[in-house]
Design a protein that fits this description.
The chain is α+β, with helices and mostly antiparallel strands. The chain has 21 helices and 29 strands. The chain has an eight-stranded antiparallel β-sheet with strand order 8-7-9-10-21-20-18-19, with helices on both faces. A six-stranded mixed β-sheet has the order 1-2-3-4-6-5.
Amino acid sequence: MGLLDSKKVSATVGGKEIILETGRVARQANGAIWVQCGGTVALVTVCEAVLETPKDFFPLTVEYAERMYAAGRIPGNFFRREIGRPSDHETLVARLIDRPIRPLFPKGYGNEVQVLATVISADGVNDPDVLCITAASAATCISSIPFAGPVAGARLGRVDGQFVLNPTSEELARSDMDIVLAASRDAVVMVEGEAKLISEQDFIDGLNWAHKAIQPLIDAQEELIRLAGKEKAVFVPKQDDPELFAYVEDLAVRSGMEDALRTSDKLLRKDARKAVKDKVKALMAEDERYAGDPAAQAAIGEVLEHLEKKLVRQRVVKEGTRIDGRDTKTVRPIEIEPSVLPRAHGSAIFARGETKTIAVTTLGSTSDEQKVDTLSGDESKRFMLHYNFPPFTVGEVKSVRISRREIGHGHLAERALKAVLPDGESFPYTIRVVSDTVESNGSSSMAAVCGGCLSLMDAGVPISAPVAGVAMGLIKDGDVYTVLTDILGDEDALGDMDFKIAGTADGISAIQMDIKINGLPTEVMARALEQARVARLHILDVMAKALPAVRSELSPYAPQHEEVFVNPEIIRMIIGPGGKNIKSITSATGASIDIEDSGRITIFATSKESMQAAKEMVLYYDQHAELGKNYNGKVKRILEIGAIVEILPNLEALVHISQLDTNRVEKTEDVAHLGEDMTVKVIEINGDRIRASRKAVILEAQGVEWKPEDTARPARREPRDGDRRERGDRGERRGDRRDSHGDRPRRERRED
């Protein structure tokens, strides 16, 4: 086999060819796929570390990285290389790859597995994220690692009412949905995305259409497995001791496990479960068969976890009753308190059951937009939602850092609210929402949606409609599917699905679905969506009672905003050499000023006083002369016919020699001196030409009232029939007119 020989398959989906190739590079990896669509290429590899003592959890790590050379760019950071910490976008794509493949590894598998996806060419048309989902599945399928694939990834859009698979960037800009999905041969296994308030039925129709359209990628992977697949390693799951399991379960039931699991309060339930566990340990220590068996003692936790899952699921299926006593469709009690922080621009506490968040909205200027270095170039974000989940939220002690989960939950909530925000033209503020989870018992990301919406309304942000979110769960028992509304943390852990849906009363704005089973029939998904819609309307009704409408005014602590328009030609003067003038304005007022080439200037200031000062300083460079107004100007030029005086920035007026003084002036230099100040009155405005008079100012100082007709140009006298003059006489008379009335000859007017 040659050094660059490879096996290659391809599939056409959405009218585009996707190529999956292995063997050309990364041969020492357990599995490697070169995936290409158009000019976009990614390399996805999978490697396994076989551990002598496998972990009691599955240590899978997935990393996604974009090389800037892929788009012919040099990184914009100080080091000029891709830094070690992934960007938020890279983290979000890594989660997209992780979520559909993780459930496909065998239960109990404890070897360390690492999937690395690297974008090495980007054409700006075809997105690499969904290609990497498919490639990660293909790489693992052809490796020796046990894996129940394949699955394939795709992006679903809808342009002009027609569904589009893997839309281009241009098509996506016109699409009313942006949904990423992963699917197996039989079912959809993962969904995440945003939409412009689409209906539940449109969403289901789109998923059904995309699931069928994605099948050629499943076929291609199966063909590649036949051509290049390695023999799968034999994995034998740890065998449970049925006698020990039955013994521990019996002790737990007799010690009150069922009653403990009926305790509705989370902390009390936790204490009750611990008491049962302690009692089981004590009873086993008294039993001769297990008293000296450390392995049996170590198995207690695993057995009790298995028992808890079985009891909770049986209770839901048989009784229709959940851990906290609710039925399957009831939303937990909700309490809301808006305006909780006196100095924040907008705030609210949103509590749903034992999950509680403090959501805060902050408004900033355009300079506060987030600058993001991407493959397509530098981008700006004017809306950000950050989700925090500190350890005290669940009573834990651990290091404080921003986790992938926090980035993912924040992104989902951001998508949910983005659909109802005003555009930048009508509301030019930069908006940041922070959701600090302070108590948690499930659905905290959807609490971030509800609380974030309330804080936006409290801040006076003119959203088009309120948004609420709810997390749905699922218990599958054979062919029976039970959908749960507003799941608890334990129901998330013990159930088969986490399906988050957010939107307004009119439709869906964001969605995310992860399942732990092999697939989900679309009719079950449709049932979950309808149940979620009813719950969403209930939550919106409670929100409306707490805060009926958007606040009519912004917080007094929010930045003041005003727009002014100036002549584009004077922008350079406002900025000044090296930005001297604009820096002086911002330093003196504390305002933030954004200048556009069109002459539109946006000013943000911390107070009305600061706003007025900044506005005056900006408009100082774009003032217009007023007829009859006095100006203290500076002599810029000396001419034979008079002086040019700058009366306003970039605005000059001619003071004719006859208007320099009340007495006759022989030479301009006798009165006007270059660079000196001169107070003049504007006596004529003719388009962009301005005439001014120093004589009028002097007369006013002497108590003589100035009138426009005093210095107006005389009307030209029409010649009478038979009126004949000699040339010299005509010239002499013209000169006399100039001396007496202050007008200037046509030749001099043209030169001026």
